[in-house]
Amino acid sequence: VHDLAQASQSSVLKAWEGLGYYARARNLHKTAQVISNKYHGVVPDLFDEMASLPGFGPYTTAAVLSIAFNKDYAVLDGNVIRVLSRLLDIREDVTQQYVRRGLQDLATQLLHKGDAGAYNQAVMELGAMVCRPKIPQCSTCPLNTCCVGYQSGDPSTLPFKASRKKRPHHTMAVGIVWRNSEVLIARRPEQGLLGGLWEFPTTRRTNGESLQSCCLRSVEEETGVVAKVRSRFDTVKHAFTHFSVTMHAFHCDYLEGTARPVLCTDARWVTLDELSEHPFSRANRKLVDALDRTDKPGLF
Fold first, then answer.
1. pTM of the predicted model, to two decimals?
2. pLDDT tens, 143-197?
3. Which of 160, 222, 248, 261 is most buried by its number of CB atoms within 10 A?
4. Contacts of residue 207, Cβ cutoff 8 Å, sequence gap at least 6
5. Are 22 and 29 in contact, with CB atoms under 8 Å apart?
6. Which parts of the chain sit beneath pLDDT 70?
7. Do 215 and 174 contact (CB within 8 A), yes or no?
8. Which of 55, 76, 62 is nearest to 117 (CA)?
9. Is 114 left (phi over 0), alpha (psi -120 to 50) or beta?
10. 118 C-beta neighbours (distance < 10 Å), count
11. Strand partners of residue 280
12. Whole-number Å distance between alpha carbons of 12 and 126
């Protein structure tokens, strides 16, 4: 934990690269620093202290306290919610907070005291392997004789969730700006989606805006560099949890300006070999890999 605490955020994000949910990596890093500095390298085992650690919500706190310290706290994740909803034929919207609170109370009442770690893992495993979202294996479930959802005849309709809104889709333009043999990259703000990761300057296209204009706008607004579009490079599609994007990348030539953090936290020129030293999101990593497979326009 001391080594993790002393590591740079960039190296942590680089180790995490490609896994998604980058806030988890940032919180893991911050938590290691708290444990190292405040608790002298010993993970606290009291609920309030653990719940105060970065990234520790109710589920993570209960899971760690029960599994690592065998304390009597019940976990409530997607698997447990599914098991309880089917077991008791709960047909209220499980995305509502009052329903979640009721499920948490039920999980706590059913908890096998003194053996919380094994019990929590057993219920989660039951949900993952037997009481599955689709095609549940009810015939082999140890709870089928008392499961109201199974006896109702169609447990796969539970848990109930209200219809979600259609996931939005955004069109993005990406500028791969060359200055001789170097290319321009920018580091995203610490907070928010993909915080602390590097990218080629990218922004969302506005209504009526051409992709080329959007590309040049992203470069200047993010880094202060003025460029011109040379040619289209590649198109990358990527799905995030709550939206999806299509990224249109263009090779651009540097015209003027000093690279500086404007709408980013750092901006710099790097060689193609140096790109591998920086943590990128999965979508931008696809562009980096595509550059490795093609001729490099900045070199001639």
1. 0.78
2. 999 999 999 888 999 999 988 788 899 999 999 999 999 999 999 998 888 889 9
3. 222
4. none
5. no
6. 295-300
7. yes
8. 62
9. left
10. 13
11. 198
12. 33
Q: How far apart, in whole angstroms, are the C-alpha atoms of residue 287 and residue 174?
A: 10
Three-state SS letters, the chain = CHHHHHCCHHHHHHHHCCCCCHHHHHHHHHHHHHHHHCCCCCCCCCHHHHHCCCCCCHHHHHHHHHHHHCCCCCCCCHHHHHHHHHHCCCCCCCCCHHHHHHHHHHHHHHCCCCCHHHHHHHHHHHHHHCCCCCCCCHHHCCCCCCCHHHHHCCHHHCCCCCCCCCCCEEEEEEEEEEECCEEEEEECCCCCCCCCCEECCEEECCCCCCHHHHHHHHHHHHHCCEEEEEEEEEEEEEECCCCEEEEEEEEEEEEECCCCCCCCCEEEEEEHHHHCCCCECHHHHHHHHHHHHCCCHHHC
215: tokens are 């590309």
What dihedral angle (degrees, nearest 10) is formed by the CA atoms of 200, 201, 202, 203?
A: 170
